[in-house]
Amino acid sequence: MAGPFADGSSSRAPARQATAAAIQFINVDDRSARDVVVLPPGRIERRACAPDDRVIAFRRTIQNVAKVFVGVVPPAGGRALAPETAQQIDEPTITGCPAGWSPDSRVLYMLLDTDGHRCLWAQEVDVHGRLDGKPYPARHFHDRASAGISTSLGNAVAPGSFICETVVVRGNLWLLSQQ
Ligand SMILES: [Zn+2]
Prior knowledge:
mainly beta, four-stranded antiparallel beta sheet, 41% strand, binds zinc ion, disordered N terminus, Neuraminidase, 179 residues
């Protein structure tokens, strides 16, 4: 059965999962699984795989310090990625969170509190899966009427465009008259 992707694969986005021991790719056609990232003790979460399935980002928390890492997905049959060998994003916060990837898999978007607001930042990744430079702001969310956006955007639906939820707070004053 042909999948929803250009190459006929149906083993992508809906099929990633984190077990207690590893982040795995699952082929939904035959239900076969392969380990992509082996999990050490501690918390690894917010995995975000690039659309081309070649690089994966995740958040690792050690003693309440959460940092974002990027690693190259091993080829089928290859040894799973050890988080210790992944590259840590160079950013000053301890609450960073991968949000999603650009359609061309060359930009990882993250939610970072670098400037005191939780904004969308971009980290470029080269064709080899190596970090290229430091994160830069992609979209600020400093609008005081906005009470934040969803914490996991998923991959961009088009260059620079995401579908996300946001909450907008509006106040109303009502004057009640006694009758
Ligand atoms: Zn900002």
